[in-house]
Amino acid sequence: MLQHWRTLSSRAIHENPWWTYRLDDFEIPGGVKGQYHYVHTAGSSMVVPLTDDGRIIMVNQYRYLGRRESMEFPCGSLQHGQTYLETAHQELREEAGYTARTLESVGRFNPYNGVTDEMCEVFVATGLSPTQAQPDATEEFEVVACRPAELEALISQAKVWDGMTLAAWALARETVLGRLG
Questions:
Q1: Which residues have C-beta within 8 Å of that of residue 124, sequence separation ≥ 6?
Q2: pLDDT tens-digit profile of 70-86?
Q3: Does the residue 148 lie in any domain?
Q4: Nearest one of 95, 150, 107, 104 to 126, comparing CA atoms
Q5: How far is residue 31's CA from residue 126's CA, in Å, rounded to a whole number?
Q6: Within this chain, do residues 161 and 76 fall inside the same structural domain, yes or no?
Q7: Do 145 and 110 fall within a single domain?
Q8: Could you tell me the pTM of the whole model?
Q9: Residue 26's domain spans which residues?
Q10: Based on the domain organization, do 80 and 125 belong to the same domain?
């Protein structure tokens, strides 16, 4: 079994409302010391919404860093004091314009384990009811509904390219397909 690294100190270099850039001093077994730069977050929730007629709800949005549109599942960061479940309900409502009777957790993953300590919890949402979307001032979404086979075709054609959405689908796929029989 691998021995764990020991944290000697940890400090925030920069903070904003979404994440903190941190710098840790560490020591590995054998005495070698080093520094680790990373992004700390409180976590995030991603929702795979499934309609009663078997369609998956996604949101298409412009991603500034990618300089292009991205089709994704609704997702957002945990705010201070929020749970993963509360965040999932909020993001589904704000981004896709739906509420869910049931949100079932299907797992967690780290989106970029060499760069962030973030954990994203994935939920499958069922019993959907439309409501008014409430995007943030810098967000614009186009809601897209597709069948699982259509989603998988979009993935294989690299039209769905967001890594978090790809990981979430890997976790949710079996549950979604199981609900569809």
A1: 47, 48, 50, 103, 104, 106, 172, 175, 176, 179
A2: 999 999 999 989 999 99
A3: yes
A4: 104
A5: 51
A6: yes
A7: yes
A8: 0.94
A9: 6-40
A10: yes
End-to-end Cα distance, the chain: 42
Strand stretches in the chain, DSSP E: 6-15, 20-27, 33-40, 44-49, 56-63, 68-72, 75-77, 98-109, 120-130, 142-146
Do residues 93 and 157 touch, judged by C-beta distance below 8 A?
A: no
Counting every residue, how long is the chain?
181
Tally of structural domains, the chain: 2
Q: Could you tell me if 14 and 69 lie in one domain? A: no
56, β-bridge pairs: 50, 146
In this structure, the answer to whether residues 96 and 150 fall within a common structural domain is yes
Return the residue matching tokens 């710098």. 23
pLDDT tens per residue across span 28-47: 999 999 999 999 999 999 99
| Strand bridging mode 44-49 / 120-130 | parallel
Query: Tokens 């700390």 appear where?
Result: 40
Please check whether residues 79 and 149 belong to one and the same domain: yes
Is residue 132, in this structure, part of any structural domain at all? yes
Q: Are 165 and 143 in contact (CB under 8 A)?
A: no
Would the pLDDT of 132 be above 90?
no
Q: Are residues 21 and 91 in the same domain?
A: no
Tokens 């079994």 correspond to 1
